[in-house]
Specification:
Length: 993
């Protein structure tokens, strides 16, 4: 059989424009859609296409677009639409011809325009010739090819009288072709299959008698004579009710022949020479794996979607996710689970070949061959092959598995066109353009699933013997299935290795990707495939983002790192999210998988980005954080003199609308800020970055509050101090050691805290740094006060007060006065103490800074309570507590509750004291060091005993004794006395505050 004359060659298909009207009016160049504009513009295009190259006058076009009520400027609008169509056609603009006051669409070469309607007409004509020649199999296949070109309603969504007329004409022709193909089905003996389709068609078109006639014949030939007669009775009743007429003579005659069981109605048996009696059943699924692990919910969701049909559409499921997440493994496993529901075969294609997306035309050729299509009958061009492919799948139940899809355009021609079949697709990006698909985004495994997969491959005995090491391995693999498989495969092929051997190799982050190789599997190769598909600006952003050490990154911080404005950065980052190489867990925040980050950084360091470019990117990020932290601090402590002594940021940061937003930022970015400071100490960074990093750490001292970040803050301050010492940067070292002292104290390491504060004071005086000098003196005073060295404490506070006043630091002055009041009270100078406390509080209230005011209220409350002014102390504590809650300072809220409990107990309210002490314990369980909890337990025990609950008090003191004994604190002997136990003989550590 000759090929239809309008079929494009492969090269022509890639370069020429093609059009469709048997559905939405669209145009493509190759597989790239062209923007053909508004509904009116598409109506113009459709009108010209349906004229078959003949000229349409302007008046005819105006009538086609607007009918009897055209707009005032119809001709001008018509010219505008034509101009826009030319622009959309690009290199093919010359096919739109203006002549004789009208327009026409004419091809540039010898071949007609590539139009789906022309192809359908050619298929229909060839089918008619084949039927006339007695080749019913070929005729039916050709008609299916024609019908497969329809994509919903012809001229969809177009208005106007011409579009309405043509739509009716094309729908009528579509039904006529269906009727002819169904006649062929009956001629070939496909009675049972025809019944299903005819039932649906007669429901949709109840007054179309030819469909009723075919349904009656199909039912009769299927041995369902009574149902065939019932169709006639239903038709006669419907025609009488709706139109007041009787059935057509042909339908009445068929009814009579069925009543008499006319032997000629049995129809001819299928001719074996026309085609194979049994269609070829392709079985192309790859093998599944025995150690498969996946959530049951995902399996059930995919299984149900692929095996449930509405009788109208093809179920399509699309699995997306990052490289190595197990998309193919999952898809193959699901395909095997459902394959018994697709008895006519399973087709498989890998849509990526050595980093290059596979041409869908080639895939269709492979599928057609698998479906036993002779090579001579395989047409050229995606459009034509897709039509033949869908025709072959009509009335079959086939599962199509498309692996590693590049985009929706690559996939669309490969989808079955009728219900009964189904398609399962995997891709890295989310195929958003795939209408009607069920989308599954596959994430990394849970820790338990990851360990299960590792155990199934390695063996339960080896894993159970080294369970913690196995957890370390799967954690180092980021719970990514492919990485776990590679790691497990390495272990199974090296019997002398233990799981701990592998865990030790993965502990070296710089070599982790290198270690994730075995045989032909390698994580960096998988990453390279995805990376190779990035455009240059995407690749550069990918590499630079990998340089930052934080767990994630905000949009504003990423924009600073990339040196772009926020809108431009967001567009770029979202394209990386689309590639599945970057994740966006919440809007405005982005995160790499840890192995993807390692790959991105390796690419950046592999001479793709010079050292100065990498350093500049991290500097931009550091200064963005510094500027943002400065703005946050200014909101919390307006007018603080500290800001005048900080390194100026070289780029803008985020500007906050209020204190709450600033606190949100600090809470969200805590770990990332510490990571940025740590990175500033690495070799190769500029020396002046130490100052900026130190000041950033200074501005974020609120991070000393949350217990979760406290060890990291302490380590960051230590690293910073050592780097500054090595660089000979005395001011930076002094500030870092001051912060390190505070971290030690927060962790209960008081001797280390004292060592660092002494060093900070010495270095601060050498550097003549007012920031360190006043604060270090104040800190030394607090340490002396805690150790009950009251005279030394008063001396330190007096010197700190002078230093703060000399610098004009009113916040520091208020803090020194508050602490001074406590030292004066301890020395018996009650009047001076209360005056200092009152002076400090007036300073704080004048400054109006919530968190500093809260600290001032707390400190003066302690002084008032010690002076016996319990009501005044409770008032200060209550006000401080509200402010600490507002500032999200859970540690200080817990300490304030503890002080309130002490004051209430002293005032003879033990029940209230116990309630406040228990609330203090709850707060300090989150953010309190053990020694603080022990002190609260002692107070709680006293309150419980005073409230008449001695047994509970005894248990509480036992817990306090356990903590103090562990810490070797002298307070342990005081608790032993409460419990009636002898004093310990072991030497004690220094007193705790």
């Amino acid at each position: 059989m000759s090929s239809p004359p309008y079929r494009s060659t492969s090269d022509a298909h890639q370069n020429s424009v093609r059009f469709t009207v048997l559905g939405p009016v669209r145009a493509w160049r190759g597989t790239t859609p062209l923007a053909v504009g508004s509904p009116q513009q598409r109506t113009l295009l459709a009108t010209l296409l349906l004229r078959g190259g003949r000229t349409t006058t302007a008046a005819e076009l105006v009538d086609a677009l607007w009918g009897e009520e055209p707009p005032h400027a119809a001709l001008a609008a018509l010219r505008t639409y034509a101009s826009r169509l030319r622009k959309a056609l690009g290199p093919d603009a010359d096919i739109l011809v203006a002549e004789s006051g009208g327009y026409a669409l004419r091809p540039l070469g010898d071949q007609p325009l590539d139009l789906d309607l022309a192809h359908a007409e050619t298929y229909a004509a060839e089918a008619e010739n084949a039927r006339a020649a007695g080749d019913h199999h070929a005729a039916r296949e050709l008609l299916n090819s024609a019908l497969a070109l329809w994509d919903g309603e012809p001229l969809a969504n177009l208005a106007g009288p011409y579009a309405d007329y043509q739509r009716t004409r094309l729908e009528e022709w579509h039904l006529s072709l269906l009727e002819t193909r169904l006649e062929l089905d009956l001629d070939l003996g496909n009675h049972t299959e025809a019944v299903l389709e005819l039932t649906a068609l007669t429901t949709a078109h109840p007054l179309r008698e030819r469909l009723r006639e075919l349904l009656m014949l199909a039912l009769y030939r299927s041995g369902r004579q009574a149902e065939a007669l019932a169709v006639f009775a239903d038709t006669r009743r419907l025609l009488a009710d709706e139109l007041g007429v009787d059935p057509a003579p042909t339908l009445a005659a068929l009814h009579q022949r069925i009543l008499t069981a006319d032997p000629e109605l049995a129809g001819p048996a299928p001719r074996k020479t026309d085609g194979p009696a049994t269609p070829v059943v392709p079985l192309q699924l790859p093998a599944t794996v025995q150690d498969f692990v996946a959530p049951d919910a995902v399996l059930a969701q995919l299984h149900d979607h692929l095996t449930t049909t509405d009788g109208l559409s093809t179920p399509v499921a699309a699995i997306s996710g990052m490289p190595g997440v197990g998309k193919t493994t999952l898809a193959v496993h699901v395909a095997h689970l459902v394959r018994d529901r697709f008895p006519d075969g399973q087709l498989y294609a890998d849509l990526q070949d050595f980093h290059v997306p596979t041409d869908p035309e080639a895939v269709l050729g492979s599928f057609l061959r698998a479906l036993d299509t002779p090579e001579a009958h395989i047409p050229d061009g995606v459009h034509e092959r897709a039509a033949r492919y869908r025709a072959l799948l009509a009335n079959r139940r086939v599962l199509v598995l498309l692996d590693n899809a590049h985009d929706a355009d690559q996939v669309r021609p490969l989808l079955p066109g009728t219900d009964g079949s189904a398609a399962l697709i995997t891709s890295r990006p989310h195929l958003a353009g795939l209408d009607g698909a069920r989308f599954i985004h596959l994430d990394v495994m849970s820790p338990d699933q990851a360990l299960t997969l590792f155990t199934r491959i390695v063996g339960e005995q080896r894993v159970t013997a080294e369970l913690e090491a196995a957890k370390e391995v799967v954690h180092a693999c980021g719970h990514l299935p492919l990485a776990i498989r590679i790691a497990a495969a390495r272990l199974t092929t090296r019997r002398t290795w233990t799981v701990s051997t592998l865990a030790a190799k993965f502990a070296d982050v710089s070599r982790r990707l290198t270690e994730l190789r075995t045989g032909d599997l390698a994580m960096d190769t998988v990453m390279a495939t995805a990376y190779s598909r990035l455009r240059p600006h995407q690749a550069q952003a990918f590499r630079l983002l990998g340089l930052a050490d934080g767990t994630d990154i905000s949009l504003a911080a990423a924009a600073a790192l990339l040196g772009r404005d926020t809108d431009e950065a967001e567009d770029l980052l979202e394209t990386l999210v689309d590639t599945a190489l970057l994740n966006s867990p919440v809007p405005g925040r982005y995160r790499f998988h840890n192995l993807v980050r390692l790959y991105a950084r390796a690419r950046a360091e592999r001479d793709e980005d010079p050292p100065e470019a990498r350093s500049a990117a991290l500097t931009r990020l550091l200064h963005h954080y510094l500027a943002t932290a400065t703005d946050a601090h200014e909101l919390k402590c307006p007018g603080d003199r500290l800001l005048d002594h900080l390194t100026p940021a070289t780029r803008p940061g985020t500007v906050f609308t209020g204190r709450s937003a600033a606190l949100d930022w600090l809470s969200a970015e805590g770990g990332n800020l510490l990571a940025a400071v740590q990175q500033a100490t690495t070799p190769g960074r500029a020396a002046h970055e130490l100052r900026a990093a130190t000041d950033l750490l200074f501005l974020t001292q609120d991070l000393l509050g949350p217990a979760a970040l406290l060890p990291e803050y302490e380590q960051t301050a230590r690293t910073l101090a050592e780097a500054a010492q090595e660089a000979g940067d005395t001011p930076a070292e002094a500030r870092a050691r001051l912060l390190l002292s505070r971290a030690h104290a927060r962790l209960g390491r008081f001797r280390e805290a004292e060592i660092q504060s002494r060093a900070a004071l010495t270095l601060g005086q050498l550097a003549d740094d007012p920031v360190v000098r006043g604060r270090a003196l104040n800190l030394r005073g607090v340490e002396a006060l805690t150790a009950h060295r009251l005279t030394a404490a008063l001396t330190y506070f007096t010197k700190a007060l002078d230093a703060f006043r000399h610098d004009g630091d009113r916040y520091g002055e208020a803090a020194a006065l508050a602490h001074q009041s406590r030292a004066l009270l301890g020395l018996g100078r009650k009047r001076e103490s209360l005056a200092a406390a009152d002076h400090a509080l007036r300073h704080y209230r004048g400054l109006g800074a919530s968190v500093r005011l809260a600290h001032g209220l707390y400190t003066t409350g302690v002084t008032l309570a010690a002076a016996g002014r319990l009501d005044a102390a409770r008032s200060r504590y209550t006000e401080a507590l509200a402010l600490f809650h507002e500032e999200r300072q859970s540690l200080w809220a817990g300490l304030t509750l503890y002080r309130l409990a002490e004051a209430l107990l002293e005032a003879g309210e033990p029940a209230e004291a116990a309630r406040h002490a228990e609330n203090a314990l709850s707060a300090l369980l989150i953010d309190g060091a053990p020694w603080r909890r022990a002190k609260v337990l002692v107070t709680l025990g006293h309150a419980l005993r005073a409230a008449g609950r001695p047994e509970r008090a005894h248990l509480t003191w036992q817990e306090a004794l356990r903590i103090f004994t562990t810490l070797r604190a002298p307070e342990a002997d005081d608790v032993r006395a409460l419990l009636g136990l002898p004093a310990a003989r072991t030497p004690a550590a220094a007193h705790l505050p």
